[in-house]
């Protein structure tokens, strides 16, 4: 099954980025997904399959606003 990614989603990946960050933001959606590290602002283009396999947790902006209210 295909994981639905949307612009602005915050992802937590299994492996840490070399800068030490685990949090990423989705900035491009398609066959390849563009993600940006929230620690060092590095941009990476990853295939959807690779990203789905390395995904630990996905949080959409709508989820964050409803939990903080």
Describe the protein in words.
The protein has 69 residues and is α+β, with helices and mostly antiparallel strands. The chain has one domain (10-60). 22% of the residues lie in helices and 38% in strands. It has helices at 48-54, 61-68; strands at residues 10-13, 23-28, 32-37, 43-47, 55-59. It has a 5-stranded antiparallel sheet with strand order 4-3-2-1-5. A hairpin with a 5-residue loop joins β3 (32-37) and β4 (43-47). The chain is globular. The termini are far apart.
Q: What's the total helix number?
A: 2
Strand order of the largest sheet: 4-3-2-1-5
Oligomer designation: single chain
Strand percent estimate: 35-45%
Helix content: 10-25%
Task: Compute the CA-based radius of gyration.
Answer: 12 Å
Count structural domains.
1
Report the principal-axis shape.
Answer: globular
Outline of the structure:
The chain has 69 residues and is an alpha+beta fold. The chain contains 2 helices and 5 strands, in the order ββββαβα. It has one domain.
Primary descriptors:
5-stranded antiparallel β-sheet, alpha+beta, about 70 residues, about 40% strand, globular
Layout of helices and strands, plus pairs?
Elements lengths: L9 E4 L9 E6 L3 E6 L5 E5 H7 E5 L1 H8 L1
Antiparallel strand pairs: 1-2, 1-5, 2-3, 3-4
């Amino acid at each position: 099954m295909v994981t639905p990614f949307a612009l602005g989603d915050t992802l937590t990946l299994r492996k840490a980025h070399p800068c030490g960050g685990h949090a990423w933001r989705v900035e491009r959606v398609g066959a390849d997904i563009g993600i940006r590290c929230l620690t060092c602002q590095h941009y990476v283009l990853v295939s959807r399959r690779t990203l789905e396999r390395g995904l630990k947790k996905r949080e959409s902006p709508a989820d964050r606003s409803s939990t903080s209210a």
